[in-house]
Amino acid sequence: MNCDISSMKEMTTVSGGVLDGVSATTLWTLHNRASEAKRSDGVIRDPWAVTLFDTISYDYRKFGKPNQSHGLRAVAFDAAAKAYLTSHPKASVVALAEGLQTSLWRLDRAGVADQLTWYSIDLPPVMALREKLLPIDERIVPLAQSALDRSWMDRVDDSHGVFITAEGLLMYLEPADALGLIRDCAARFPGGQMMFDSIPHWFSERTVKGLKLSDRYLAPPMPFGLSADEGVALAGRIPGVRAARDVAMPPGRGVFRLAASPAVDRVGFVRRNRPSITLLEF
């Protein structure tokens, strides 16, 4: 069931103030993604993100000036999901702590979402906002719960493969919880894949001490840091993870294009201290 943005019911503006703490960071990522999508030279095309951004009333500027980071991250996640769905068209996609991500509709436009089942998982306030703003779709199984509540695993049909995304999630967890979630996913869904992004240790330490994105917004602590090479090493560290690879960030504009250069990434100091995206195979 495809749902074009033109079919969205006309609605009044809703307040984003219903979200707080870590849940409110989905408005930060939405700000960045939608701002990119609105640009003629933006790194992502995301009509639903623009619609959500324009519909949710919120003081987005307190997150600081928008940048390309979350748009590029979304493009990287889309590419890996598309590759998996191309070979597993009836797979289940599990979007842990999905927030206000709109990945399903981007994959739909890419032609790989016709037969999948999409498990959308997040805390009740976030899921209520998604239900209010995004279209009903027969492919979506909404689950209003924490990603750490493993009962979601019992709901997932793994008969045609499973692709799990933890986009913007693990860094907000305690290290034992983050690694435990990976371990349990590997044990439960052999043959599946899991993709997550990480922040470097130095950035994690800054957020724990208190990182202000602006003079009006203090970022929540992000206690779990992981370097690119530590992500790859999970294949030898966690039972059931048979392979792991570092996923390169797509090139953006300006400094983001430079940062994506393989030559730059071969510099040890840069590689150890940059954000990373890891794709695990179970």
Describe the fold and architecture.
- The chain has 282 residues and is an alpha/beta fold.
- The protein has a single domain (72-281), classed as Vaccinia Virus protein VP39 (Rossmann fold).
- It is built from 13 helices and eleven strands.
- The protein has helices at residues 25-37, 47-55, 69-87, 103-109, 124-133, 152-155, 175-188, 201-209, 228-232, 234-237, 255-259, 262-265, 268-273, and strands at residues 14-15, 56-57, 92-96, 117-122, 140-144, 162-166, 193-198, 212-214, 217-218, 243-246, 276-281.
- Strands 5-4-3-6-7-11-10 form a seven-stranded mixed beta sheet, sandwiched between helices. It has a two-stranded parallel sheet with strand order 1-2.
- A hairpin with a 2-residue loop joins strand 8 (212-214) and strand 9.
- Helix 1 (25-37) crosses helix 3 (69-87).
- The longest helix is centred in the N-terminal third of the chain and has 19 residues, at 69-87.
- The protein is globular and about 45 Å long.
- The two termini are 30 Å apart.
- One of its GO terms (molecular function) is methyltransferase activity.
- InterPro entries: Ppm1/Ppm2/Tcmp, SAM-dependent_MTases_sf, TcmP-like.
